[in-house]
Amino acid sequence: MRLLVTGGTVFVSRYTAEYFAGKGHEVYVLNRGSRPQSGNVAHIKADRRALGNALKDMRFDAVLDVTAYMPEDVSCLLDGLGSFGDYILVSSSAVYPETLPQPFSEEQECGRNTVWGDYGTDKLAAEKLLHSRFPGAYILRPPYLYGPMDNLYREAFVFECAEKVLPFYVPKDGSMPLQFCHVRDLCRFMEALLIKKPEQRIYNTGNTCPVDINEWVRLCYAALGKAPEIRYVSADVPQRSYFPFYDYGYVLDVSAQNRLISDLTPLSQGLREAYEWYRSNRELVRKKPLLEYIKSNF
User: Is 36 exposed, middle or buried (0-12, 13-18, 19+ CB in 10 A)?
Assistant: First the structure.
């Protein structure tokens, strides 16, 4: 297939471009050229909000839109595209209000999530804009994405603590659930949609079962062959000052996803892969001052 991937230089969009290129597809990436490009894709240098005629004469079998965060991102891309077949938008589970019963399912009515704020509201607006103009598009709602090329300071923070043989500080009793989606499984699911073309248009993606914070930390340390000394922090300490996730646990129903793909990446394996990438690419991770706060306050 001839595929257009938006972005293509950082984490999910870069992994997506390289995944499909590695499968033998003809992959084009659309970005402004401000970062190094992958070697096995074709680069279209343009701003998705100011495309002009950059795409008008091109035909794509599918558009994999990984970098739309607002409805304008979608509308400008649709206006600039020439001919295309399928369209897959990577949205977010942040579109589900935290007040809904869990696990969240695709049939539930979406709206503002006060934890995620404008991020979730803008993602939902992008979804609605896309379906108003192209009803046949597929929309994916992953939880926390992880794996190789992850430049966010989440697993990387725990890996750093494990490398330095530091204790790990966990909010409250560590029972808050976390649900993950390996970036490769996200790509496998996009691939399944393009091949099988199911009637359902919106899908939650991710691991079938969440883990609590305690187990996630143990698995991160285990990726280095270590075991953490876990220390618990009371609720009156701001969680984001020393821990990389919000104080918000939620679970997605991914049964529809599981009817299309199986053999999802075990979290333990995915974290080992994430650490192997981090060891050689730690300079690409956007660090936050979590360790500095810990050193000063605990």
Answer: exposed
